[in-house]
Amino acid sequence: MALPLGAIQLAVVSFIASTLSITALGLRLWSRHILRQSLHFNDYMAIVAMVFTAGAVSVFLAAGFAAGLGVHLQDIMRTDPGLFALHLRLFVPAQLLWAAANTSVKFSILSLYTTIFPERRFQLICYGTMAISLAYLVSVIVEAFALCKPVQYSWDKSIQGGTCTGENLAYLVAGITNLVIDAFIVSLPMPKLFGLQMSLSKKVGVAGMFSLGALICVLSLLRVLWLWNWDLTDMTYTVTPGAIYSVLEPTLGVVNACLPVIRPSLQRIFGKGTLNWTKKDPDGSDASQTFGSCQRHTLTGGKDAKHGDFVRLADDISLSNIRAAPNHPRNLAERDAIRVNREWTVDHSLPGGRSDRI
């Protein structure tokens, strides 16, 4: 039997989106190698997200090629009821892998935020959002096994006396929750980014790197609208749009997580001018730091970013608190301490070209 149109559409979208996500992750890891940096938590979470995404895409493709996705349920039940049974068995792992992939993407992005923006309050918000995302994943896992009694009825509708309650509502609430979390994560760094000392055009460009997540939010919204109208009585046919959205969300999510840190690899391929946000603005000030090396640099945009006795700026040289040792060490251990002798020279320019030096 020829593949239905829905299965073909799903296959095309899966191939393109998976290629983009794998390429983005490869560029991310290459950028770390170029900068001679070890992998950080946000990198590992991007890798984990790609693994879960590959699993989810594989399950959806299996449903398209071998489990009747895109075919009307009544046609399946008339010709080969076994396809519907296989479709249901694939639905549960697809749901879980999709949720795990999206949660891993959220963790990667939020962890990157905490690296770029070191303000304590901002970091606490990011950690709190991670906790909410983890709770969401747990809720999806519970949802997958708690809606039907007995549990096996979720994937085996041949069980006599089995029932499922509130499936549409549960899926809809989960979709709305995912949308709200995505929208919050996308908007979270925008005040910080637009607070950077750079021209408006550069601010828009840098924000654009972080805003592919807006497209993810659109996909999440489309998925919520689909869930609102999903006809479970013909689920093998009506699931096609949802399957496509569920493939695009995590795959483009991986791209979104990797985009801010792949500049070094893109410059290696296309030249030094690629995504160069560190050029001087017309007023002579630095536009921003390189996001690909955010583990070595710090971006802050205001007076809240205080560390110790100074305000940390976006400099190439990391600043540190230095404690001056007494002129005469009290014990032998202090003899190895660093001493700092400070002198001040003040020039007073006077009329007539004369100057006094103190």
UniProtKB/TrEMBL annotation:
Residues 27-268 form the Rhodopsin domain. InterPro entries: Rhodopsin_dom_fungi, SAT4-like. The chain crosses the membrane at residues 6-27, 47-70, 124-148, 168-188, 209-230. Its main location: membrane. It is a multi-pass membrane protein. GO terms for cellular component: membrane. Keywords: Membrane, Transmembrane, Transmembrane helix. It is found in: Membrane. Belongs to the SAT4 family. PANTHER family: INTEGRAL MEMBRANE PROTEIN-RELATED (PTHR33048:SF57), PTH11-LIKE INTEGRAL MEMBRANE PROTEIN (AFU_ORTHOLOGUE AFUA_5G11245) (PTHR33048). This is Rhodopsin domain-containing protein.
